[in-house]
Amino acid sequence: MLDSYVFQNKYLFIAGLVGLLFWILDFFSVMRKGELILPPKYRTQNVFSIMRGILLVLGVISWLLISFALMGPKTPMGKSNVKKEINDIYFVVDVSRSMLAEDFPPNRLEAAKEQIRKFVELSPVDRIGIIMFGDKVFTLIPVTTDLKLVEQSIEQIKIGFLGSGTNIGDALGLALARSETSIAANKSIVLLTDGSANAGLMSPMQAAEKAKELGIKIYTIGIGGDPNAKLPVGRDAYGRKRYQNMPGQSMDFETLRKIAQESGGKDFVASDNDSLNEVLSEINKLERKGLEIKGRIIYKEDYYKYLMAGFFLLVFVESIRRIGYREVA
Which residues does the UniProt record annotate as the domain VWFA (predicted)? Predict the structure, then answer.
């Protein structure tokens, strides 16, 4: 029978035995001064001794029950299956020089970073990762639920060290490779770019086909598109910013649409801060799946029945001792 129990703390049994020891010392009056007890005339000495022996046995049993209860016995009832949402989302962010265009205040990149922050705040159950790309691609942070770390990483999204090209295909390929081994039930990639692919070994459509094969959806966001967008190119002799025109037609909306369509995702165009906010809010509401996590064992707590049995038995014994036999402490 004991083999069927799991104990929270077996060593607490000792506390019950200590209580039993003090109770036995009290029962045999070891700690008290001698006193004369005259039983009623109709009660023979033999009957008195037998009854005290029974009370001793019952008292010992009560303390053993209490000691057993202190160990916290419980019975395993089986494993529960908990359904928990675990979703992986990789933000693949364009950090080419064109993202400095100021049609989004203060510029396209800073506007995108701010919206990613808001997205993270709205998705505390998701695992967020960030990949940056220019000519080269770089994993800024693998997927994690550490929101503070994600927020710190967003600050590190900067333009310059990855080159000025737009390597969309390899960036998506890196996100797919990292997502492939994840245990998450739902995996998504959010691509933010303002240009057309002009670098890399893998084409954007090859990446989209691989995403379809892996069941990973790609949501594309074309940032900008304003034909009057201006790109800062330094400052003049008076410290004023100098700009050059950057036609909105440089963005390949058609390819972004095909990437999303092939992978089962959606394509969006964000022309200003408000529309970018709406786009990411919509992505946050898209399909979410739960992952069934097994292994949490459910227990039936049994300590209380032993504790109650021991307590009431001890109360019974003490009542007989102190009322029936008029033993006093």
Answer: 88-283
Tally the C-alpha atoms within 13 A of residue 182's C-alpha that lie toward its C-beta.
Answer: 27
- For 178, the token pair is 């990292």
What are the pLDDT digits (tens) for 131-173? Answer: 999 999 999 999 998 988 999 999 999 998 898 889 999 999 9
Within 13 A of 181's CA, how many CA atoms are on the CB side? 5
